[in-house]
Amino acid sequence: MSNNMLLKRMISAAAALCCLTSSFGYTVSAVEAYQPTAVFAVTDGRFDVDPTPVNPDASPEARELLKFIADNYGSKIITGQCADNGQMSSEFKVIKDELNEQPAILGMDLYRYLPVRQSHGDSCQTVEYAEKFYKRGGIVTLYWHWNAPEKYYKSGTDKDGNPRWWGGFYTDNLDMNKFDLAKIMSGEDKEGYDLLMADIDAIAVQLQRLRDAGVPVLFRPLHEASGNYGLYGGTGKAWFWWGTSGPETYKQLYKLLYDRLTNEYGLNNLIWVWNAQRADWYPGDEYVDIVGEDVYPGKHKTDPQTARFNTALSYTSSHKVIAMTENGCLFDPDEALSSGSAWSYFCTWQGSFTQSAGKISEEYSEKSVWEKVYHSDNTIKLGDMPRHTHAYNQDYAVTVKPTYTEDGYTENYCLTCGRKSKTDIVPKKTLPSTKITGFTPAASSVTLTWDKVSAASGYKLLKYNSTTKKYVQVKKVTGASKVSADVTGLSSGKTYKFKVQPYVTQNGKTANASESAAFTAVTKPAKTSITKTSSTKNSVTLKWKKVTASGYKVQQYNAKTKKWKSVKTLSSSKTSFKITKLKKNTSYKFRIVAYKKLGSKSYNGAASAAKTVKTKKK
Is 326 a catalytic site residue? Predict the structure, then answer.
């Protein structure tokens, strides 16, 4: 069988399978479910996972959630964001404001519920935020920076001047001469064991609140246990205390935690996400629903970290969902899908990884990358979740009136996911045109006048180009009341065609009205000059320089009236004329005026300099 045929059969099989799958509480049709966005050259079945939770008594909500994740694994990537202040956090706000979307997964910490932190006045609303987000259609994931019992802390403050309890989950804040997790787990340090069990009990109470509210949780305890072994140039030191005694003790603690929360407290709403990041730390398939990998490759790295994905695949020979449970940089979802490194979901860390001064932070991922991820058809956002219903509160609907540059509409804003929807579209207004009412010519310019358009921001003057046979803008006039303007740089004695087009600028955009009807105007001819004269006893002959004109007027000065009078009008082909019936031995003054005709009206150019010529005596 050819590779192409194999891929086609894989696609057909996937389409058929989609008819039978469900989507986080909803049964979906093949058309809805099967939307292939990439075809992988991966035939190892890595995305074929069993959606059955490891807890046989898992709640219906937990089963639906894990099935939704499994159904989309390999074809869609679920967006996520860590934000300890929930959906009202600055992280969610900047994503909503700048990307018009919200993540489908909310990640939060449980550590502020611990007795040691509560004793120092710490508090949180993680459970309340989780319940609200789930009810709005989202997915909740909870991690737990577990403070060690306070009796094991070093004295004084940490290197940053903080009290030790503030970072009591870090190995560096513990006196390792006193703290030994292996001894705690073996019972040799019974007080330490009892204190850890009291912590588990305190967290269990909070998780029970979510269970009773019907909220399933992607539960990620004891994360990054193996520390920086082989990562970031590290030496293998466990930065969290639960990894300080090595993999076997860690696995013992993980299994104890699973057993206590599942079998003693009946927390069947938990989906177990294992995140120790080393194969020898893997507790066994019966304790793990999802394999998580926390990935911080540096800054501005958009590749899908295929090597890390393949490493996570190797932790177990069975097929488990692989997720990027924490990330610094955002990765390219298209590349992740096409390369077969299709992480089920990601959960970007909070603070400067996401926002800075109320804006999307570009310290780790450029704004363009954020836009690509959150506007991609290959990612699932909160608004895409099958349980999510857009909450368009009419009190927040905004009616935008039409302008001359934009349509009017009603904008509905989803208070839950941030998406905006426009309805009741009203077409943009039409700016009236104008009419050119007249012109005043000069030798190298014309002054056009036109009717006022009150709504205009100004007017564009257009001149016809006989070569391109198009009207081209030659001037722009600002202000509705400015209804005349000079068009300069023209040739003398020529005919031109013009149009005027009103325009309006609103909100940084410009809309043009229809162009006025074409209007013909002319320039005055240039000033000519008399180049030669001759006379007889009763006549004078004049010659002058040719200019572009419709013709010439020969004018004679009347000394009595002190006015010039045209004695002859000639065509443009004439550049000489003989004036007869004059008196002998008499002086006369003459001048030449070139004119340009438009319709029945003539426009005179400047008169030439006057020439005095005397007729002969005989």
Answer: yes
